[in-house]
Specification:
Layout lengths: L8 H24 L8 H40 L3 H27 L6 H27 L10 H17 L25 H12 L8 H6 L3 H12 L2 H26 L6 H26 L19 H16 L1 H12 L3 H27 L4 H25 L16 H4 L1
Helix pairs in contact: 1-2, 1-3, 1-4, 1-5, 2-3, 2-5, 2-6, 2-13, 3-12, 3-13, 4-9, 4-12, 6-13, 8-13, 9-11, 10-11, 10-12, 10-14, 12-13
Membrane topology: Multi-pass membrane protein
Organism: Scytalidium lignicola
Protein name: MFS general substrate transporter
Length: 424
Amino acid sequence: MPQLRWNSPFVQNALAGLVLGLTAGIYVALSTLGAGGGPAFFSGLISSPLLNRFGPAICSSVGAAGYIIYTGSLWYFAKTGRLGFPVAAAVIMGLGCSIIQAAVGYVIMSYPEERHKGRYIMISQMLSFLCSMFSSIVPLAIDTNNLSASGVPPSVYITFIVLMALATILALFILPPEKVRRDDGSAIAIVPRASFLSNMKGLIKALMDVKLLLLVPGMLATEIHLVYLGSTNSYHNDARVRCLNGFVALLVALPINFFLSWMLDHTQWTRRVRGVIATSFIAVFLIGAYIAEICRTYKWNRHIAGPNMDWNDPGYAGVLILYIINWVACSLVLNLVMWFLGTLSNDPEKCAHYSGLTRALLGLGQGIIFGLDAADIPYKDEAGALLALYSTAMIGMLLSALFIVPETKYFEEEHVIIPKYVQE
């Protein structure tokens, strides 16, 4: 059982996960309701130098503020129909989203011991899922008996903005790695002060690491499902079904997340075996779900109004089951990507670059799918594009597990302090 100290890696990871849940987690809930935007590509690239320069606390707090502005702009658009504010806010949120998620990824990858990296990813994800569940309950409670509800009520926006404001305050209590202490009393790493230019050089060096190439499709695919499922959920279902789908999927994701973390941290298997088994487990459900999606949406026509399905309608059970499998499998791709990246380094500076790159490619992937969705291509074609990207991502991670993943990075990185149990 980890020690519950403010400067323990466990508590700091939980705090970072809670901040992410109160911002990005709520954004996920908004996406399931049919509202949403996408993080920016270039802000992801510059987030790692900012993170190494200013630390996770300031970056997380500033990033959380971007979510407040964006959520307020969605409320404004719902009231007025004017696009100026939402467009500007989407840019701001894109910057903030990349920075806060890079900061949380930095904590996830560099704060835990190697044997606990799957657990730390799981804790962060589960806190995000729990916040998303709560965010799904709010509109569900409002819309349960309102069959005509077609948008997001103002009370939902107000609740979300208050929670995001809380996140901006909590983020300020995230400690930098040099102030964090493991349970054995040792520090995590010695983090040298570097200029912004030096950090940019470090970023370029990290980007040129060929070991990352196999993980690029996975980074692109980590959150593209939010676009597709948000769009199809909005097209096919009424408001209360959209809320229920999101809530149930998040609920099911909790135990599956725990099981995946057990596989990733099961030390009786080598790291490469863990990577192969965990990736294969997700791939089976992921690829199967999108083959089913292509079949389901084959005759859908975006230019004809959807059925506006309610949970009392025939056939809803099958729709819900497919949504759950799809959402859960897709959401756990991020767990795999973060674990694979975490096997490549324990150095906070390098992990910041990896996390920033992940957020940049995440934004690029979402931007591509947003573009396809905005072009009103048939849903079956959009599902086919996701199937192709997810299949490529799974193959890349399997190859990485087989040929790239090292058994340990301890004693190979000069800034990392080795845990006492490893030295004994």
